[in-house]
Known about the structure:
- This protein has a two-stranded antiparallel ribbon with strand order 1-2.
- By secondary structure, the protein is mainly alpha-helical.
- The protein has two helices and two strands.
- The termini are far apart.
Amino acid sequence: MVLDSDIQEKLSAHREAKKETVEKLVQVEQEDLDKLKNLQAIMDNLIVSFGQLAIQETGVKAQRGVLETSLVDVKSQELALAKELSTKYGDGSLDLATGKFTSAS
Length: 105
């Protein structure tokens, strides 16, 4: 059974502990607060910069995808034209500067 004296003792101990906690509070110097605030501002700027970089990376990836699609399309057109020219002129080589075709056979 809990006695009134036990309750009073625990209450007194609790009040004393709370009083000690309040007494431990110390005002931080403004210079130290300013340093912490400055570091926080730098961190905030870094977070924003990383966010902007992530957005730019997304744009670059999208642009790369478009370019890769274009490359596949151009390679496909190149193969089709090479086949068409080979059928028309036979095997050989073409000098693009002069337009002269040299037959391999």
